[in-house]
Design brief:
The protein is α+β, with helices and mostly antiparallel strands and 121 residues long. It folds into two domains: 30 residues; 88 residues, Chitinase A, domain 3 (Roll), CATH 3.10.50.40. It has a four-stranded antiparallel sheet with strand order 2-1-4-3, sandwiched between helices. It starts with a helix and ends with a strand.
Length: 121
């Protein structure tokens, strides 16, 4: 009887361990991305900055000089984030468009963004 009880406890612990491993794997597979952006008040300024970037200007330096977002101090770096942490229009670019390409201007309630996704996993 004790042997059967021990086997039942062992089996229950194995199921719990398996479920915990599955949950951990699912948590680690949630998409995440790293991006940087330049936020400005006018579409015209966003277009001008995008043209400068296309001609070789440094994205980070332009963000430091022009962005109205606090991330501008860090060259526009937003760090890593998951879907749903940013407004939908922003997420749509970061999680669906090509990486290492400057996209925009993208209009949100905050203004106009130039967005560059650095990586996505």
């Amino acid at each position: 009887m004790i042997t059967a009880l021990i086997k039942s406890i062992y089996f229950a612990l194995a199921i719990i361990s398996y479920n915990n491993a599955i949950n951990l794997k699912l948590e680690n597979n949630v998409a995440a991305a790293c991006a940087r952006h330049i936020l400005v008040k006018s579409e015209k300024l966003a277009q001008e900055l995008k043209a400068k970037i296309a001609k070789g200007a440094d994205f980070g330096q332009l963000a430091k000089k022009n962005s109205t977002c606090p991330s501008g101090k860090k060259g526009g770096d937003l760090g890593e984030f998951k879907p749903g942490q940013m407004v939908k229009a922003f997420d749509d670019v970061v999680f669906k468009k090509a990486i290492l390409t400057v996209h925009g201007p993208i209009k949100t309630k905050f203004g106009y963004h130039l967005i560059q996704t650095i990586y996505r996993n």
